[in-house]
Amino acid sequence: MSRGPTIDDVAREAGVSRQTVSNVLNAPGIVRERTRTRVKAAIALLGYAPHASARRLRTRRSSTIGVHLDPYAGGISGVVLDRFVHALTERANARGLRVLVYAASNPAEEVERIRDLRDGGEIDAVILTGTFTGDPRLEWLGAQGVPFASFGRPWGSDDLDDPAHLWVDVDGAAGTRAATEHALATAGPNVAFLGWPGGSETGDDRERGWHAAMGAAAGAGGAAGRGATAQRLVAEEDVQVARITVLRALADGPPDAIVCVSDTLAVGAHLAAVGAGLPDLPIIGFDNTPVAEALGLSSVEQRPEKVAAGVLKLLMGDSGSRVTPRTADTTDTIDETDARDAATAAGPSHALVTPRLVVR
Q: Among 5, 74, 292, 300, which residue has the least CB neighbours within 10 Å?
């Protein structure tokens, strides 16, 4: 099926900018009559029908939030963002809002997609996922004045101490620290960490929690800390790569437990332990996926539902339905003691969700 004409098609036909077409549709008084006539002729020729988009632009409100749908990549740990989008849709609906899911294969394409949605009056705000150091989406959105919040820290200059952007993230270091402390208390002092290669912001953040727990145990002494050793194993996000990596490590003597950066690596470590005749070797993953649950593996639960509630609160306050992002410079923590749901989620500009260790 061929697509219908877009605002870009009208702009090309009329020989004007897309903003001029938008002005003709929504603020015709600011456009010269000759230009208005040319644009209207192009609209009629192409059969362009803005429908509700023009009305939404006139009111400057669409009651819709855009969120990127990541390409399907398969694997074990990809369900977290699916849960986030599902929770976001439910919580937005409770506020009388809609969620518009859009696709893009790279950041540059996503910027263009957001531009189209913004210019068409289809969204009031954007929620980003998959942030990274030097993320060009952040600079563009800030320069364009498009309200947004992100699931994930804008790693780099705008991080914990810089309130330039609104974000909610999972405290990965707190999650792996809790997992490591549990392993030290229940399995023994030799707790290994199976992580991704260095350079992944998320992976490095989770590794810091393991280092912190091991360092604290070694310094504290006592039963848990006596003889605590830290073996760092590395594998790409692949079950079989993790299995081979752990098999090689087990040949040199098994640790008391293994804390993993993801459930994918935890499954690989579990397969290696079973293959080495160590089916009861404690292995803790991260993401608490259905696969980890099916295998009986302990794992760190990210609580994406709390993240969804958090980004909405950043953009609209405790219970509002209009985008009114705040610009205060503090960071909140969303921990397990929070009894409320949507209203517990975020602080004025940043929030860290404390994940939960699920022991099996």
A: 74
| Residue 198 tokens, joined | 């260095």
Residue 146: how many other CB atoms lie within 10 Å? 19
Measure CA 36 to chain center: 43
pTM metric for this prediction? 0.75
- Nearest CA to 308 out of 37, 94, 21 is that of 94
pLDDT of 271-329, one tens digit each? 999 999 999 999 999 999 999 999 999 999 999 999 999 999 988 887 666 776 554 44
What burial letters (b/e) apply to 46-63, b meaning 16+ CB within 10 Å?
A: bebebeebeebbeeeebb
pLDDT of 94 over the 60 cut:
yes
Three-class SS string for 296-353? CCEEEECCHHHHHHHHHHHHHCCCCCCCCCCCCCCEEEECCCCCCCHHHCCCCCEEEE
Higher pLDDT, residue 238 or 53:
238
Q: Is the predicted pLDDT of residue 60 greater than 80, yes or no?
A: no
At residue 227, the pLDDT reads 56
C-alpha closest to that of 340 among 46, 91, 112: 91
Give start and end residues of each alpha helix (H) in the chain: 7-14, 18-26, 33-46, 52-59, 79-94, 107-119, 136-144, 172-186, 201-220, 222-225, 239-251, 263-275, 290-295, 304-316
C-alpha pair distances (Å), 241 with each of 155, 259, 268: 28, 16, 7
CA dist., res. 98 & res. 296, Å (int): 37
Side-chain half-sphere of 321: how many Cα atoms within 13 Å?
13
Q: Which helix (H) or strand (E) holds 131?
A: none
- Sign, CA torsion 9/10/13/18: negative
Residue 110 near residue 104 (C-beta atoms within 8 A): yes
Q: What residues have CB less than 8 Å from 295, skipping those under 6 apart?
A: 267, 270
Between CA 66 and CA 147 the distance in angstroms is 11
